[in-house]
Amino acid sequence: MMKKITLIIGFALMFTQMFSQTPRILEWSIGEPQVTCGESVQICYPLLVTINDDSESPYLGTSTMRIFYDSKLLNNLSIQNVEPGYSAGTLRLSDPVLGGVFGFSSDEGVFAQFNVIDGAASSPIQLSASNSVHVLDFCFVVSDSASYPLCTPIVLDNNHLGKGQGIAQDDGYLMNDAGIVGTYLLNGDLGNAILADDEVVHYKWEDNGNAFDGTVNALEDRTGNTITTDCIQNVCGVDEEVCDGIDNDGDGDIDEGFDADADGIADCFDNCPDRANPDQDPDADCDGVPTSEDCDDNDPNNTNSNVNDADCDGVPSDIDCDDNDDTVTTTNENDADCDGVPTSEDC
User: Fold this and answer.
1) How far apart are CA 172 and CA 159, in angstroms?
2) Residue whose C-alpha is closest to residue 194's, from 48, 27, 49, 25
3) Which CA distances in Å does 23 have to 159, 165, 194?
4) In angstroms, rounded to a whole number, what is the distance separating the alpha carbons of residues 267 and 89?
5) Alpha-carbon span 59 to 47, nearest angstrom
6) Helices in the chain by DSSP H: which ranges?
7) Cis omega before residue 149 (within 30°)?
8) What is the pTM of this model?
């Protein structure tokens, strides 16, 4: 209800047609991030929009944009590449305390808001139902502490509990927060902005459904989590690959160069990194004899196995006079009747 109340109070005179028809849906999303290399790495996230009904030549009107981002990984937000004729109003940023609420990499998360001032009179953004239209870019400098692949969500401030429920439930996540407020103009009528029913597609972020109670009023609240698949690779430089289960150098391979025994298991996860054992059978002394069969699993020089030496006395079962007593090491090779008297002396 915040969105409706806010706009009734603040913009009633301006938006004379606001409630004269069923509002159309503006769907806001983030396009493919663009990385620029240099002394510092810059990433720009394009803000895109579509409308569900593009009859009557809809233009984008003045709109309020609100987002949340991971400020441990992304710094120095600037609004760039705004479409000609349009402009960005004053950018306001919160303290970096909302990271835990949105499941970012740390507690450092920022709420950012500004107005997109329409330039429909000179160079309107023509809205489309079939194609996403570019509005502007959110540009950041990547933190020196960031690692790759870089999973950096952009959460568009449109509460997921109101998704698909119409304009009355079209609010943001915070208390007294109207969320994203989009408007559009029809048939070139620049004096009558119409309030949209806003929907969003977040970037690398998923909500946690009904586990969230609807309003962020404490830092202990949890709204969702970062998506950690298909994240941004390091295209500006090569980090040194280390054995840790992560693609550190961003080349698509994990732990390459760390498989000394060529068994397909990286050394840091291999129970015997110097002996090929792709099945990773337990073998404490890494002598090639599984723990379950090893007569001495603490001595890699002792490869005697209970499979062919049941009493583990060092005499193979097929010649051991007593293969159940490891104190008896007499063999039938030198004592055919196994009576303890060597064959050469036995009557």
Assistant:
1) 5
2) 25
3) 18, 12, 7
4) 54
5) 16
6) 2-11
7) yes
8) 0.66
